[in-house]
Amino acid sequence: MKELGISALDHLIDQLSQLPGIGRKTAQRLALFILKSEPEFATELAEAIVNLKQNTHLCKRCFNIAEDDLCAICKDTSRDIHKICVVEDIVDVMAIEETHTYHGLYHVLGGVISPLAGVSPDQLHIKELIRRVQDEPIDEVLLAINPSTEGETTIIYISEQLKPFNIKITRLASGIPIGSHLEYLDMATIGRAIQSRQEMK
Ligand SMILES: [Zn+2]
Fold first, then answer.
1. How many A from CA of 49 to the centre of ligand 1?
2. Which CATH number fits domain 65-199: 3.40.1360.10, 3.40.800.20, 3.40.50.1000, 2.70.150.10?
3. How far is ligand 1, taken at its centre, from the CA of residue 13, in Å?
4. What is the pLDDT of residues 175-196, one digit of tens each?
5. Which residues, by Cβ under 5 Å, contact ligand 1, an ion?
6. Cα–ligand 1 centroid distance for 64 (angstroms)
7. Judging by DSSP bridges, how do beta strands 198-199 and 140-143 pair with one another?
8. What is the mean pLDDT of residues 22-50?
9. CA–CA separation, 111 vs 90, rounded Å?
């Protein structure tokens, strides 16, 4: 698509088109919408983006998004502190929370083991997970990792690492199609997969 020669507009279109799912055409439409909007809207949008980056970081315990040292879930005293649900990404925490079927804690790995993509176990938050199982009163670790070849490798690796500890290791019930991501599944499917989770022997 042809640039318009207005550098401020072209710059915004360039930035927006780097967002996931936003093609050049959509970026152009969004930029023009912002251009035509009230000045307050544009200012608030820009401030919201800066504020998000400046005032959030990863939870020291579980690597979920947090505004303080610990995230809202880790700080919530009504949660079941004996269970950890292990997920790939923060978006999976959001997907599971929406189902209201799980009330324990989380641990965000930050990806899956992938030799092809050069991701080894020590690049993920696996060591921190093992430390939590050692230090916290955990009796179950639920491996809610997206079903894929890499996901399977990660599930097997973590379950091997957790074997020496006398805890229950579970995984999501089968029925989630291979290659699908929790964030794109409906709440009922995720809820069922959590409620009928299977123990790994
Ligand atoms: Zn946390």
1. 22
2. 3.40.1360.10
3. 35
4. 777 777 887 788 888 888 888 8
5. 59, 61-62, 64, 71, 74
6. 5
7. unpaired
8. 96
9. 10
